[in-house]
Amino acid sequence: MKKISGKIVLVLFMSITMLCGCHREFSTPQGGNSSAVSDSEQNYSSDITDSTQDSESNSEENISDIPESGTPVSVHGQLSVNGTNLVDKNGKPYQLRGMSTHGLTWFPDFVNEQAFLTLRDEWKTNVVRLAMYVDEWNNGQCYMNNKQGSRDLLEKGVDICIKLDMYAIIDWHVLNPGDPLKYTNEAIEFFDSVSKKYADKPNIIYEICNEPNSGASWGGNVKPYAEKVIPVIRANDPDAVIIVGTPTWSQDIDQALSDRLSYDNVMYALHFYADTHRDDLRNRLKSCVEGGLPVFVSEFGCCDASGGGGNNFSETTKWLDLLDELNISYCNWALANKNETCCAILGSGGANGNWSDSQLSESGKWIKNRFMSY
Ligand code: IDC
Hints:
This protein is an alpha/beta fold. The chain has 12 helices and 12 strands. Ligand IDC binds next to β10 and β12.
């Protein structure tokens, strides 16, 4: 992995940005009020070429907002796992906090530099999770129906994170079907290729199966799948952190605790939706961490598990306080403006960042304030 001094990267970054005098903005096919538009109706543009143009946005303000100590990856470098902790290049416990995109091909316009820059400099986050749905219910907007388009958007997101010196989680978003083994060959092909491409970048974290479900068990499905995919990533990128989903929509971390994978730098995913999952799951988390399991909350919502219903901020607070206490990293679902409780941006908010509070949903406002409170 590249080891570059934080200061050099910061100076380079600032010089390049000042030379350009602008933020590049990517094409954003979706405009106006899209809240009434369903996922399948989202206008997925296969042309995701950058459209470099002068921006009226406040690039200088954003630059001066960068903390003295530098931007995330230049300061913290290659992450690894030590005991239950995610640690930085100096071996110090480090917590990633950030937003997860919605399905990349469903909301392609949110993959743009100004949006991620706002997440970094205003919301004070250090990671973006890039959710690439593997298969879905007949809407065609997923990897199995559009490999190249999905892959292009994913790489666009990763490249923006690298440019902005943020961490990027490459999420193979297994949801349907619930058994990750079903697309093992495709996963191997995909992870071999991306891990080759990004082998020298300390920014990247691989998440190999979002949420196994529908009876997929740890021992029978998830672990055998992980044992096929992890060595493929390791052959190209020996020290990247890899997150592995757990059964029952990434809730059964206890199954992993009793039957751990034998690789280093592996973390196990726990997902919660605060109005559905409460003390029982929090207690499971505590006991698994006490038992030595490194856990990563790669997805959570402030609402119920459908992504809808009302927000429950008092339960979310209990969750996030516990995660802070245990140094567990987390990503909030989702950076999108679908008319859904879990989405952070209102329909009128658009995808280009610099959102005012009136353009954020209740959940968006709340989570932004939480991120900024650190
Ligand atoms: C939901 C989206 C919703 C979409 C649905 C399709 O919010 O717009 O129609 O997926 O399947 C998860 C999943 C995540 C879900 C989310 C909310 O990882 O893909 O997104 N959720 O239901 N696990 C628990 C909840």
